[in-house]
Specification:
By secondary structure, the chain is mainly α. It has helices at residues 2-25, 34-45, 48-66, 72-88, 96-120, 127-164.
């Protein structure tokens, strides 16, 4: 129960940290979406209720804070969560190479979807952002993905330990 009470607070703190401090380190060039890494981790390691609520909450808060397209992050994060959940029983999840490749594909897919939405809905061509922004973002997040997954695993163990008492 404590998980559901602390989740909104920590999710909001994470997104504030992600949109302020991490943007300062990247000099506004790329976005380091740690929230997307958490959604992928949730799909791999959390049960369907906890992971679904976490993914929805992160998407909703990120939509409220930064989104130009209403509902985009909710839909995209829930889609990534469902895909991660579906393949979690079919692959070896502890493999660093798998984590790197899957994270790269998810982050780059987000960039492609944003590009397509801007192109077809807003009639704005942001094709230069694909290789100047989204590709470096995907490379950086896939490189730090395994380290973040190890950290998320340790935090998950601490949360489970707190619930057992």
């Amino acid at each position: 129960m404590i998980y559901y009470l602390l989740m909104p607070v920590f999710a909001l703190l994470l997104l504030v940290f992600q949109t302020t401090v991490l943007d300062l380190f990247a000099f506004g060039k790329i976005k380091l979406e740690i929230s997307l890494l958490i959604v992928i981790y949730a799909g791999f390691h959390l049960d369907i209720i906890k992971g679904g609520v976490l993914s929805f909450l992160l998407g909703a808060l990120l939509d409220c804070m930064t989104s130009l397209i209403p509902g985009f992050h909710i839909i995209f994060y829930m889609l990534i969560f469902v895909i991660s959940k579906k393949i979690s029983s079919r692959v070896y999840l502890e493999g660093i190479l798998f984590i790197v490749i899957f994270t790269f594909l998810c982050v780059f897919l987000e960039g492609v979807v944003v590009f397509l939405i801007y192109l077809f809905v807003f009639d704005v061509n942001i094709s230069y952002d694909i290789f100047n922004t989204y590709l470096p973002q995907a490379l950086v997040l896939s490189a730090i993905g395994p380290t973040c997954f190890a950290l998320f695993y340790r935090l998950d163990i601490l949360m489970q330990y707190g619930e057992e008492k």
